[in-house]
Each structure stands twice: as C-alpha cells, then as structure tokens.
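tool_log.txt
---
The assistant was asked to compare two proteins side by side. It first ran the structure predictor on the initial sequence, then on the second. Raw inputs and outputs are pasted verbatim so the downstream comparison step can read them without reformatting.
(1)
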Amino acid sequence: MRLPLWAYGLLLGAVLAAGWAAYAHIRAEGYREGFAVAEADCEAERQKQETANRNAIDAANKQLLERADELMKKELQLDDYVKANDLLAAEAPGADGKCLPAGSVRRLNTIR
C-alpha cells in the first residue's frame, strides 16, 4: 500500500521535529552542566583569592606591629639620649652662655 505524498511530508516533519527537540534538549543540558561547572570553578577561584588576600593582610598587619614596636623602642632610645644630653648640657661649663661650647655640639651630633 502506497502512502499519499502529504503523509511522507508529515512523517518527515515529525522526524525533523523529534530530532530538533532531542538536539535542543541535549544542548540545554550541556549548557546547564557547563554553567554549573564554570560557576563552581569561579567560586573556588574566588575563595582562593579571598584566602590569599586575608593571608596578605595578616602578614602586613604583623609586619606593621613589628615596625611599630621597633619605632617605639627607637623613640624611647631617642628620649633617653635627649634626657642625657640635657643633663650633660646643664652640667657643662658655660651652660648659661648664649653660645654652644664644642662639647655641647659634639653631644648634639651624637643624637643624629
């Protein structure tokens, strides 16, 4: 039995529609899976960058505290030098004079 021509056209259209539906479904699934993988990779990279940033900030803060302690020690040392210089200047002969004697100049130069 021979089918009419329109039946072959209908059959061809149905096959094409089924093929297109399968292609669209597979493509959509691939897109969703690919998007999920890319999103997971992006999140992992973001977490890694956040950890690296946090570690860098912690290291910088530690270095800052060490430098602040160093600076505090130098400031105390400078204060000690200034106090010692003031005592020596007060005891030096000619401390009441308007000019600095050579000993005072040498003491001032040691502070530099």
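(2)
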Amino acid sequence: MSNNYYEYLANFNNISDNQDGGARKAHRVYVDNALNRQLGRVGKTYGKTSKPNKPTKPTKPTKPTKPTKPTKPTKPTKPTKPTKLTKKSKTTKNWKLLFSPSILVFDKLWDMGSNIYSLDSFIIKKAKPNKDLEKYIDFDKLVAWHKKQIMDLGEFISTDTMEVTINSVTKERKGIMAVNITTVYDSLPQVPYEAERLPEDDIEMIGTMIGTVDDDGNYPVKVKKSKEYKTTALVGSKLISYRVDENPVRKKSPSAKVDPKNDRKYKITDTKTHGKTRRLSAGAYYRKHGKTNKKVIGDVCQIRGNDPELKCLLKRSNGTVYWAKKSKSGAGQKACGKWRENCKE
C-alpha cells in the first residue's frame, strides 16, 4: 500500500472537520488524543493554510468633474487668395549670326532675275567667295548696305517673349557677313544633366527676317554697269550659321547714359561726299536737349554748315541716336513729320 494510505490511517481519528465550522482545509485541526498530545499538535491546523487576503483599502471618492465650458463657435475661414504668379526668370544671350549676302539682278523688267550669292556654297567649311558677285558689286558695299538697313530692326523683330537688340554688322571674312545680336527671353525649363535648351527656332526666324529686310525692293543697290544686267539690284541674304557668342562685341551705351563731360557739340568728320567738315553731334544734341524736352526725337536739323541737306534725329533699338537721311518710303521716320527744320541749335 502507498504511504498515503498509512498516513490516512494515522490521521483518521486525529483530525476534526467540525472545528470553526465547515470542511475547508483551512479549518481542519488536530483533536485532543494521546497521539496528538504526544506529538504536541492538539488544536493546530492540518495541512497548509492559505494566507488571509489583506483587506483592501477603501477607494477615495472621486472628485466631481467640473462642467466643461461651452466651446466658442469657430469663425468662418476666409477664402484663400489666389497665389500671385511668380515672374519668370529672364535669360540674356549674345549671338553671332553669319550670312551670305546676295543681289537679285534683272536682264529685263519682266525677267524673274538671277540671285547671286557672295558664297558658292552654304556649307561654311567648303564655301568660297563667289567670283560672279565681284563683277557687279564690291562685297564691302553689301555689308555697309545691311548695316544701314538692319541696325534699327531690333524693335521690329522683338516679340512679347523675346527682346532683340542688334549690336553690330561686320565683315567676318570675304563673302561672309556677321551680325551680332543680344536676346532677352523667358528662361526655358532645363532638364538636369542635359545640355542647356536654347530658343533655336526663334534665332532662325530672326535670321530669316534679317535676310528679307528689303523684301519689298524699296532700297535697291547700285551695281556696275553691264550690257547684260540693269544698273540696280535688290539685296537680300541667307542665314548660314549661328552660335552663342561667348566674347560679344561691346555694346554701345545708350546715348542718354554717356558721360556728358567733355561732350563736344560738333565733331570733325571726313566723308567721301562732304570731305572733312564740322558736323553737329547727334549724341551731344540729344543729351543737351533731351532732358528738358522729351520730343527731341524727330528734330530736323542742318547738321553741316556748308550742306543744305536736312537730317532727322532718330533713336535705335539699343538706345543710341543718329541723324537719319530722308528716305523715299518714310519707313521708321514718322517722328520726323513733314521734314521742316526745327533745330534747337
């Protein structure tokens, strides 16, 4: 038999479940008999007793919560103003445009004419001066003709998105004419790590407009007399190349910004027509009278004492002023009115 059985027998008459009421282990005690007296356990509890639970502390009464203040009604939000459009940044570039000037010569009045260019090819590396052109006109005269006609063209070929100023018209080399311009336009969006975007279409359009400056034929040029052709020819040019000019020709300062110190009212000039003469300076005249009279542009003056020819004061797109000769068409000379002398000198 197991030890539990003998233990049961030993305790059979030694334990009472009726002490302190109930049959729970916590209240079973050893009765008074010879064995329990000998072992000294009379009245002691039998088995393990569970510790009485500590009396829980009475919870503090919770304070009554304060009544919440009524929330103020929120003010209606003002409608957000539309954000102002930020001004686009501007880009300024100097360009060098190369042209091959040409003349259109006629055999007869009803003839369609023959176009003779200054180059025998439009590929610069292969191009050579066209010897046929030299039979009728000197190339330098063609460059001078263009300089006279297109220096004031900037304001007419400028657009809402691009401002154009023509700085110079020069001979690049024989057969090639160079036109230096400055453009100011809205910066184009650029892609990272890619080459800068340039307004190439606009530059080609400017080249076309320069090349057809006299498409109406109002300013023909004189050519050498020939049995085959008439003595006058129409002038044009073709754009053959263009690039951004990293070393541009120094732009002339607007006449109003030139320092008037040592400003000479009269200059000594030497020309084929008039020889060495004393001439009224357009810049000095403008700086002297332009500050007090805004209508100085359009003044008509006899600029040389020994020459009765009248000249009109006009302003170029780059801000410089000059004395203009009366043209047959009157294009760009509206400010001159009826060409009556009204000089302030």
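---
observation on (2): Residues 19-26, 82-86 have pLDDT under 50 and may be disordered. The first strand starts at residue 15 and ends at 16.
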